[in-house]
Structure formats: structure tokens, C-alpha cells
């Protein structure tokens, strides 16, 4: 079933492809891909000596962009408190993306500082802010970071897990099924949902192992994630499938909506639908799922 609470308009975020801003071919290709969003990366996929060139390439790319392509556009900057961060944010202002992804957020102030910087520059509603959760400190401070979603006009939209950095910092093993990471991922889900944020699962590095990748997407969906950060175009199809709306789930949602629309169920809080109790909260979930399915259909008809 769909998630219970959301503080911003419904967006498709099944597949978010990271594209190094220093890779001209990948930049060019990104607009033609069926991912729901592109994360233009100025951080770890760009070598230190290429940072300035990557910013310039990104600004040129956005200047020539066809903004009718149905993709959300996010720029991942380097840490705002570091050497490259302020110049990256100036590039963000020039680009005008939908959102800025902040890496290695450790405490609420890491997000608030950027929100205040953007507000001072007159950037009121957009870009939105997304925060990467990828350090032990971020895990300890999850509730405080997610709570930023309720301040500064609710500018924080999404938490994105970064398991490469988290494994590096903690020593947690990279294992099939992510057994020792699942408890941390679930903490993130609970914190994000408490403040109405969208939740994006971490990248999977083995971009040729598509069966394993599909299983990890399915696991992420079952945990409650909305989508996954990707590193390669081959991962888009499996992610869109796993985080899309299955036919059976859509049929069930339609049955719930139809049942509550029956005259005999008017005014009822709970009904019997084929031997299962269904409440009005399930009707709300069903309506959201139907709306998401409609968004997917609209997108597929446009691309
Ligand atoms: C992983 C790669 C370095 C592999 O690159 P390559 O060997 O060139 O792949 P292919 O030859 O299989 O590529 C086939 C075609 O697809 C295009 N391509 C590849 N990757 C992308 C991409 N990301 N976006 C757009 N297009 C892409 C190639 O250009 C080929 O096109 P064509 O010429 O038409 O055949 C590479 O995939 C890559 O660099 N991926 C992204 C890396 C990245 O962004 N890293 C940062 C995100 S990871 C992260 O955030 C971790 C997190 O912080 C954490 O801590 O966990
Ligand atoms: Mg990282």
C-alpha cells in the first residue's frame, strides 16, 4: 500500500539517476532517459581538479536544457561548509534546478544554513532541499534533521541514503540483503515519514548485476522507500518497475474506492471487502496509489 502522509505534492521519484557533471556524454544522454529524476553530481564523482570545469559544464547544460522533459532535476553540491560548497551554490542559482542535494548532512544546521543562504538570495520556493544521510552522526541525529521538513517553509523534501559512505564510516559489511544496514535504513524511514519527507534508497554499485539490483529495489520498496538513487541507465527500468504500481495493487485500490462509493457504505468508517476489514484510511491510501498510477501513465504517454 502507499505511504500514509506527505507534506508536499505527489511526485514520481522511483528512479533518480546520478550523472557526474564532469561527464559530457552522460550529461547529454541524461535528458533522453526514462528516469524520474536526474541528480547532477558535483560531489564525489567529480575529481577535485575538475570541480570548476564541472560547474561550468553544468551551467551550460542547464542553459540549453529542454525543460518540458518530464524529469525532476537535482544538483548534488559539495559540503556547503567546505571549499567548493559556496561556488556550487552560485552555480545552482545559475542553473535553476528543482532541488539541491546536500551531501553528508550530519545535523539540522547543515540544512538550515543552506535554506537561509537560498532565502537571502531571494530563492523562495525552489530549489527544494534534499539531504543525504550517510554518516554515523546523521543516523544519530535523524529526527532533528528530518524535523527541518517542518521549518523554513518546509523546504526539505527528501532524505537520500548513502550507504557507500555509511559503510566506510562504520565498517558495516557490504552483504546481500543488507542485514546489518536494514535497522539503520528503517530508522531513517521512520524519521522521514514522521515529518512527511520522501525517502530514497541508496545506490547499488554492481550496475551489471541487474537481478541482484532488482531484488534490492524490491527490498527497498517493502521497507517503505519511494525510489532509489541510481548510477547507470541500465538500472532505470528495474527501479521504475519495483517502485511503480503493480497491477494487483491498482486493482485492489480501485476495488476499495468503488466499495466506499456504494450507497450502502455511505457514512461507514469500516466495511467488509471480501472478508477483509477496510477502513477510511485504506481509502485515502487507495486514492494516493491511484493518483500515482495516473502520474506514471501520464509520464509514459509523454516519453
Ligand atoms: C559506473 C560508471 C563509471 C560506468 O561507466 P561506463 O563504463 O562508461 O558505463 P557503460 O559503458 O556501461 O555506459 C553505457 C552507456 O551509458 C552511459 N552512461 C553510463 N553511466 C551513465 C550515467 N550515470 N548517466 C548517463 N549516462 C550514463 C554511457 O555514457 C554510455 O553511453 P553511450 O556512449 O551512449 O554508450 C558510470 O555509469 C558512472 O559514472 N555512473 C555515475 C557515477 C556517479 O554519479 N557517482 C555518484 C553517485 S554514487 C553515490 O552518490 C554514493 C553515495 O554518496 C554513497 O555514499 O553511497
Ligand atoms: Mg556518499
From TrEMBL:
UniProt KW keywords: Lyase, Magnesium, Metal-binding
GO molecular function, one term: lyase activity
Top-level taxon in the UniProt lineage: Bacteria
Listed GO biological process terms: oxaloacetate metabolic process
Pfam families documented for this protein: HpcH_HpaI
The HpcH/HpaI aldolase/citrate lyase domain, residue ranges: 14-233
Binding of Mg(2+), residues: 134, 165
SUPFAM superfamilies: Phosphoenolpyruvate/pyruvate domain
InterPro entries: Aldolase/citrate-lyase_domain, Citrate_lyase_beta/mcl1/mcl2, Pyrv/PenolPyrv_kinase-like_dom, Pyrv_kinase-like_dom_sf
Requisite cofactors: Mg(2+)
Coiled-coil region(s): none
Residues given in the record as substrate binding sites: 76, 134
Family label: Belongs to the HpcH/HpaI aldolase family.
Protein name per Swiss-Prot or TrEMBL: Citrate lyase subunit beta/citryl-CoA lyase
Amino acid at each position: 500500500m502507499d505511504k500514509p502522509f506527505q507534506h508536499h505534492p505527489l511526485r514520481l521519484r522511483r528512479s533518480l539517476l546520478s550523472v557526474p557533471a564532469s561527464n559530457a556524454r552522460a550529461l547529454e544522454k541524461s535528458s533522453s532517459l526514462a528516469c524520474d529524476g536526474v541528480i547532477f553530481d558535483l560531489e564525489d564523482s567529480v575529481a577535485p581538479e575538475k570541480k570548476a570545469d564541472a560547474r561550468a559544464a553544468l551551467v551550460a547544460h542547464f542553459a540549453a536544457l529542454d525543460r518540458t522533459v518530464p524529469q525532476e532535476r537535482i544538483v548534488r553540491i559539495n559540503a556547503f561548509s567546505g571549499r567548493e560548497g559556496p561556488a556550487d551554490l552560485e552555480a545552482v542559482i545559475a542553473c535553476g534546478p528543482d532541488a539541491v542535494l546536500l551531501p553528508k548532512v550530519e545535523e539540522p544546521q547543515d540544512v538550515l544554513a543552506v535554506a537561509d543562504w537560498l532565502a537571502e538570495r531571494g530563492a523562495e520556493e525552489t530549489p527544494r532541499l534534499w539531504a543525504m544521510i550517510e554518516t554515523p552522526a546523521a543516523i544519530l541525529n535523524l529526527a532533528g534533521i528530518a524535523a527541518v521538513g517542518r521549518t523554513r517553509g518546509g523546504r526539505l523534501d527528501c532524505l537520500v541514503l548513502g550507504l557507500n559512505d555509511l559503510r566506510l564510516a562504520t565498517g558495516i559489511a557490504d552483504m546481500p540483503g543488507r542485514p546489518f544496514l536494514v535497522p539503520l535504513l528503517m530508522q531513517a524511514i521512520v524519521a522521514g515519514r514522521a515529518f512527511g519527507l520522501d525517502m530514497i534508497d541508496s545506490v547499488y554499485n554492481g550496475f551489471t548485476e541487474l537481478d541482484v539490483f532488482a531484488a534490492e529495489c524490491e527490498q527497498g520498496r517493502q521497507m517503505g522507500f519511494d525510489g532509489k538513487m541510481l548510477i547507470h541507465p541500465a538500472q532505470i527500468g528495474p527501479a521504475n518497475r519495483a517502485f511503480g504500481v503493480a497491477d494487483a495493487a491498482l486493482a485492489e485500490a480501485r476495488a476499495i474506492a468503488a466499495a466506499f462509493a456504494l450507497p450502502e457504505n455511505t457514512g461507514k468508517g469500516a466495511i467488509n471487502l471480501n472478508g477483509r476489514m477496510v477502513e477510511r484510511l485504506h481509502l485515502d491510501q487507495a486514492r494516493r496509489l491511484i493518483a500515482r498510477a495516473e502520474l506514471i501513465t501520464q509520464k509514459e504517454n509523454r516519453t
